[in-house]
Design brief:
Layout: H1 3-6, H2 12-26, H3 28-31, H4 63-99, H5 101-115, H6 119-130, H7 134-161, H8 164-171, H9 176-187, H10 189-212, H11 224-232, H12 240-267, E1 295-306, E2 313-324, E3 328-332, H13 339-347, E4 355-364, E5 370-372, H14 378-384, E6 389-392, H15 406-415, H16 422-435, H17 441-445, H18 454-465, E7 472-476, H19 484-500, E8 506-511, H20 514-520, E9 523-528, E10 531-537, H21 538-543, H22 548-556, H23 562-568, H24 600-604, E11 610-611, E12 618-619, H25 627-631
Parallel strand pairs: 3-8, 3-9, 6-7, 7-8
Antiparallel strand pairs: 1-2, 1-4, 4-5, 9-10, 10-12, 11-12
């Protein structure tokens, strides 16, 4: 694949713009043969002509030549000084953050000393002592700006050094220099690139300012600051003289900032996708809205992709689900199977790096209207979240803001969607805390999250999710971080809320724990490698599974439920292998490399989701209707 095809699309425009503004000044001999320092007094302030496209300045010198050659000086000083400051400052910050001790002291104290001096005053002092000139400017600007890089790289490297993957590298015995350069540095490249753009722009400005004061580039050599200084006296009768260098400065600074902002996004894998500005989601075919009256939400043929220069990588493919009122649908599967992404798509909360490339998502509002989520704007989606669809996240320890009282967070959620006074919102919040089984709700309302146990915090999250009486409640592994006793209480609470809910609450329950799923689910959808491989009534899927992956999950899960034991016996078995990465999924059936009954046909074609005869049960397997093959 050619270099051009692999070049990130979002970098094309800023790269071309920056390249043009850099190349054009250095191509000055090819653009004009005029001498930038040649004086022609009789042609002072002459208007643009065929010989002088931008006219002539106060000494009759060609303005086009001066702005081009002046750009060479400004760009060279800015980029050389900024690059030196970036390399030195980033190394100082990395070493100080990772090795700490005396390295940290030298980094922070040296940066503090330089930062004590105002930049322009320090520049004036150094230039006055050592005389004006390009070399002096590069030196002083490098010294001025390296502390900013050092402080940013230090703080970011300090944060990254505390993360688990750095500890894992240390545990593997990776040399410190490799951890610093190969692990920490790539993770701080985004903030450093933004600082580079700000510094380069500031360096150009200071160079022009010093030249304007006569302390920068030595006349008669051209520079943008000198052009502004000379044109200032004649700006009333010849405004073009001051406009031209100012426009050159503005365009250059904009191009640098534009390029570095896009570079930051490209260097960050989490934001490398098209995100919210991606190609619009394919519109629905209209059938998605023609749903049964008890349908609360529907996903049809959902496809999610990660845009990459070499081609989009699918992470979710052909996922279809129907969520009904007073029904709990469970999504089960190993980590990375696509369970949480499917639910986030329903909430309109997909990460920026992932885009919806196909399929439809529809939701029934409390008014009874079925809406196509792909056709709603950000404000409309905000109106849906919390009001028509709500979500309980996995970690009750971190889902609540630790610096705000529980009641304040609940009231904020209520007032975001319901028109009532704060006293009415408080009364509703306390009533909901009582509903979810929290003792002393008034005291807990005025307490902080850290004053509650994990189970109580999860109950608070459920209460917050119910503040606006949504039609759909998404529970993303809500019992994972809780002990077994609290898990049972949360499951019992969700069961009771579902049956007592006046408007018919629909639950989408995401879990990898089949024991919990057996207690709460009416229907089960098993996901593997971004696809639904089996879907049907919970009793059938859990007691008579037809897909090899579902069987493997059941055999690997301990359970106290008699029906599950009868399906798999008492011995636990591990599922061989690991799920494939999205970009490395095999041809045909994604599970074939781990499947005990796979054949050549499984590699040749991808099996569709087939409905079993006489049953409300679908399986994505070539041999789902071949009992002899399944038993082999």
């Amino acid at each position: 694949m050619s270099l051009v095809s692999r070049f990130p699309r979002k970098m094309i425009l800023p790269s071309l713009l920056l390249a043009a503004l850099i190349v054009i000044p250095f191509a000055a001999p090819l653009i004009t043969d005029a001498d930038p320092v040649k004086i022609s007094v009789r042609d002072r302030l002459a208007s643009p002509s065929t010989a002088h496209w931008l006219g002539q300045d106060e000494f009759g010198r060609d303005r086009l030549a001066r702005v081009l050659y002046g750009g060479q000086v400004s760009l060279m000083v800015a980029f050389v000084a900024t690059s030196i400051a970036c390399v030195v400052g980033t190394l100082f910050g990395l070493i100080g953050a990772y090795f700490r001790g005396p390295f940290q002291f030298v980094t922070t104290r040296l940066s503090d000393v330089v930062l004590c001096f105002p930049p322009i005053l320090l520049a004036l002092l150094v230039v006055t002592l050592f005389g004006p000139g390009t070399g002096t400017l590069v030196s002083v600007l490098s010294i001025l700006y390296f502390p900013a890089f050092a402080r940013i790289s230090f703080s970011e490297a300090l944060r990254v050094s505390a993360l688990d993957f750095v500890e894992a590298s240390r545990a593997l015995g990776t040399p410190s220099r490799k951890i610093v350069m190969n692990t920490i540095l790539p993770n701080i490249a985004g903030p450093v690139s933004v600082q580079y753009s700000l510094t380069a722009a500031a360096a150009i400005t200071i160079e022009s300012g010093l030249s304007f004061l006569g302390l920068g580039v030595v006349p008669p050599a051209p520079s943008w600051g000198q052009m502004i200084r000379g044109a200032r006296q004649f700006m009333n009768q010849d405004p073009l003289g001051i406009i031209i260098p100012c426009v050159a400065l503005t365009l250059t600074i904009y191009a640098i900032n534009f390029f570095c902002d896009r570079l930051r996004d490209t260097l960050d894998p989490k934001g490398s996708g098209a995100g919210k500005d991606a190609t619009s989601v394919p519109s629905s075919d209209g059938a998605a809205l023609a749903a049964a009256p008890d349908t609360v939400a529907e996903i049809r043929n959902l496809r999610l992709e990660i845009p990459r220069p070499a081609g989009a990588v699918p992470v979710i493919e052909e996922v279809s689900l129907t969520l009904r009122a007073n029904q709990c649908t469970a999504l089960v599967g190993e980590s990375g199977s696509g369970k949480s992404l499917s639910s986030l798509a329903l909430m309109g909360l997909l990460p920026d790096a992932i885009r919806q490339a196909g399929g439809s998502l529809s939701l029934r509002r409390k008014s009874g209207e079925m809406v196509d989520l792909g056709k709603l704007g950000p404000k409309q989606l905000e109106g849906l979240r919390g009001n028509d669809v709500a979500m309980i996240f996995q970690e009750p320890m971190t889902s609540l803001n630790p610096v705000h009282k529980v009641g304040a967070q609940m009231v904020e959620a209520i007032l975001a969607h319901r028109k009532m006074t704060r006293d009415e919102a408080r009364a509703l919040a306390i009533r909901l805390l009582t509903l979810v089984g929290i003792n002393e709700p008034e005291r807990r309302f005025d307490g902080y999250p850290h004053e509650m146990s994990g189970g109580m915090r999860q109950r608070v999250m459920i209460a917050m999710a119910l503040t606006c009486e949504p039609r759909l409640l998404i529970c993303d592994e809500p019992t994972t971080a809780l002990d077994v006793t609290i898990q049972a209480e949360i499951i019992e609470l969700l069961q009771r809320l579902r049956h007592d809910y006046a408007d018919g609450l629909s639950l989408l329950f995401i879990s990898h724990n089949l024991g919990v799923v057996a207690e709460i689910a009416d229907r089960v959808a098993v996901m593997y490698a971004g696809q639904v491989v089996e879907e049907g009534p919970a009793t059938e899927v859990l007691t008579a599974p037809r897909h090899p992956y579902t069987k493997a999950l059941l055999h690997s899960m301990p359970s106290s439920h008699e029906e599950l034991h009868s399906a798999r016996g008492d011995r636990l078995q591990a599922v061989d292998g690991a799920p494939p990465l999205p970009e490395r999924r095999p041809s045909g059936c994604s599970f074939r490399d781990r499947c005990p009954i796979a054949t050549a046909a499984c590699a040749a074609t991808r099996p569709p989701l087939l409905a079993l005869p006489g049953a409300d049960h679908q399986v994505r397997c070539h041999y789902a209707q071949d009992p002899e093959r399944e038993a082999a």
